[in-house]
Design a protein that fits this description.
Helix 5 packs across helix 11, helix 7 packs antiparallel against helix 9 and helix 7 packs antiparallel against helix 13. This protein is about 80% helix and about 0% strand. The chain is mainly alpha-helical and about 325 residues long.
Length: about 325
């Protein structure tokens, strides 16, 4: 539990801090590098943990793998905090209560669409992570332990490659495509969702492994661009809270409940393929949300130019009624 608390705090704070080190046009690349390290670290943890556990026992394996983290934690004290909002142009007040922050985020169309799509996406990914080894075990007669290793290795490889490619593509398209962050995120899902559907009907194990690798690689294209979009569409004074609320929502409404729903459907119907079909359904919903956002929403620069004029030193630094009026004008 304490490890989870530490991870949750880090995931909320780190993107906000990185955003203050780099200008908006470089954040997609920065978040790509940052997020690509996660599957690499996970893969190293599986490899080293398995080797050290077999050689020295699981207790020492935990010690060996955790000790470097303590050293890295203390090294943070050597980093000088950047000036908050140095690269941002959106006007902001100095003190923003939480409820005002929540109201602003609720009426921030780019943020709402981004979070809604990420909830649907994480819902699907949570189901895949928990149940795909079982699917390989039941469909292709693979030992459950071996199926777990296959899915874990594919996730590590595809997570690294997909994250890197998504960040690269978003950087190349930033001056060519409007809302390029949402465009790349939606594109990855448009490619990956049909592959998930095909996977559920494939009878050959090797073909299924290749499809899963291609599918996961496409799905993980969203990671760097999406993080940059969230960072760029909110003022720096609320950025950490924006990331923390997004993380809370994707876990509360996403990967924490999808495995339970799949298990419930499987128990009630006895049809595992029917149960796991909620995964492509959720991915399809994410495709609709992000594609609609890419097409209909203003660009981040247009959004920030609109919000800049509402700075008035009050706690409601960007008023909800103005955003309602703004949203109505967008739909006309």
């Amino acid at each position: 539990m304490l490890v989870g608390v530490g991870e949750a705090c880090f995931i909320a704070i780190a993107p906000s801090m990185l955003s203050d080190f780099f200008p908006p046009e470089k954040r997609s690349f920065v978040f790509t590098v940052f997020n690509a390290c996660i599957p690499v670290g996970s893969a190293l943890g599986f490899i080293l943990g398995g080797y050290l556990g077999k050689a020295f026992g699981w207790r020492k394996a935990f010690l060996f793998c955790g000790a470097p983290g303590i050293l890295v934690a203390f090294s943070v004290f050597l980093i000088q905090d950047p000036e908050r909002g140095f690269y941002d142009t959106v006007a902001e007040s100095k003190k923003i209560p939480f409820l005002s922050t929540f109201k602003y985020l609720l009426f921030n169309p780019i943020y709402v669409v981004g979070v809604a799509g990420s909830v649907a996406f994480t819902f699907a990914i949570g189901g895949m992570a928990d149940w795909m080894p079982t699917y390989f075990h039941r469909t292709y007669d693979v030992e459950l332990g071996e199926a777990g290793l296959i899915v874990g290795a594919i996730t590590a490889i595809s997570g690294t490659v997909g994250t890197a490619f998504g960040g690269f593509l978003a950087t190349k398209l930033q001056n060519r495509v409007r809302n390029h962050f949402l465009f790349v995120s939606a594109l990855g899902l448009i490619v990956g969702t049909p592959l998930v559907i095909i996977l559920l009907f494939v009878e050959n194990k090797t073909t299924a492994i290749v499809l899963l690798l291609l599918c996961d690689t496409s799905l993980f294209m969203y990671v760097g661009p999406f993080s940059a979009m969230i960072a760029n569409c909110v003022p720096s004074i609320v950025r950490a809270r924006a990331f923390s609320i997004q993380v809370l929502m994707i876990h509360l409404l996403g990967d924490s409940i999808c495995p339970i729903i799949i298990g419930f459907i499987n128990d009630k119907t006895g049809d595992f393929k029917l149960a796991i079909s909620v995964v492509p359904m959720a991915l399809g919903l994410a495709v609709i949300i992000w594609t609609a956002g890419w097409y209909f929403l203003p660009t981040i620069n247009e959004h920030n130019n609109r919000t800049r004029k509402y700075d008035d030193e009050s706690i409601d630094f960007i008023r909800a009624d103005e955003f309602l009026e703004y949203g109505s004008s967008l739909s006309m």
